[in-house]
Amino acid sequence: MIKVSHLKKSVDGNKKQVLRGITTQFEQGEIIGVVGPSGSGKSTLLRCLALRESWNGGEYSWDGNQIIKGGGKGSQKYRSKCAYLEQNPSLYPDKTALKNVLIGQVGQTSFLRRITGMVRSDDYMGAMDELEKFGLLDKAHVKAGKLSGGERQRVAICRALVHGAGFIAADEPVVGLDPQSAERVLNTLRSLCSEQGKTVVAALPIELAERYCTRIWGLYEGELKLDVSGRRLTAEEKRSIDLV
Ligand SMILES: Nc1ncnc2c1ncn2[C@@H]1O[C@H](COP(=O)(O)OP(=O)(O)OP(=O)(O)O)[C@@H](O)[C@H]1O
């Protein structure tokens, strides 16, 4: 179980409080959609949960192991278990899909590995297996700069998994994708949760959160106002977070 208590995050030299004491808990295997108006703190929440930003206050624990106490960013050991997927995944455009998967993501894999590109042969096999599972085997040797948006997003997911991510925070992962590619990416994320026990928290438009997620969090002005499982939001709930 992942527990978040009183997560606080300020920016701009502590002048602006973006997250105002978020408390929640969730289980392995859940896929949670985060919805809320622009500026409500969705991206900041995802970056904090993925240990990509330092917390100004609060506690974070995974299966009873304390990762953050009173603020901070957690250790590299836990950072490597979290992946942060951006709208436009930052892949190396001149390196192949395979190489991108092997080298890993900034924040998740070591600096040395990224600059040297050092890999073991079992890493290579693991990466090829993972690319195959995502229907990307024929793209393994194509440069990332030549892939479509949906393929790039799936390479980024693959990269996260190869480097041991159990928890994936995805920030609007299907923005700009055509409906089929978006569906493929979201089905991929959903099956990672239901079949492999991974945990996903994704900022999504409300209709996609309702369709693909098992649970929805509604954020409003840095507070978790809604937490709904297994159903759509009512019109009243949508109004309460300014999403009508
Ligand atoms: N580094 C920063 N410096 C100053 N303000 C910031 C910083 N990061 C976030 N903010 C502000 O914090 C608020 C929340 O930002 P965040 O990007 O988390 O919101 P969001 O809900 O993801 O918005 P959107 O849906 O538009 O992407 C916004 O008002 C934003 O301008």
UniProtKB/TrEMBL annotation:
Pfam families: ABC_tran
Residues covered by the ABC transporter domain: 2-244
UniProt KW keywords: ATP-binding, Cell membrane, Membrane, Nucleotide-binding, Translocase, Transport
Domain of life (superkingdom): Bacteria
Gene3D superfamilies registered for this protein in UniProt: P-loop containing nucleotide triphosphate hydrolases
InterPro entries hit by this protein: AAA+_ATPase, ABC_transporter-like_ATP-bd, ABC_transporter-like_CS, MetN_ABC_transporter-like, P-loop_NTPase
Transmembrane segments: none
Identification of the protein by name: Phosphonates import ATP-binding protein PhnC
Source species of the chain: Paenibacillus vini
Gene: phnC_2
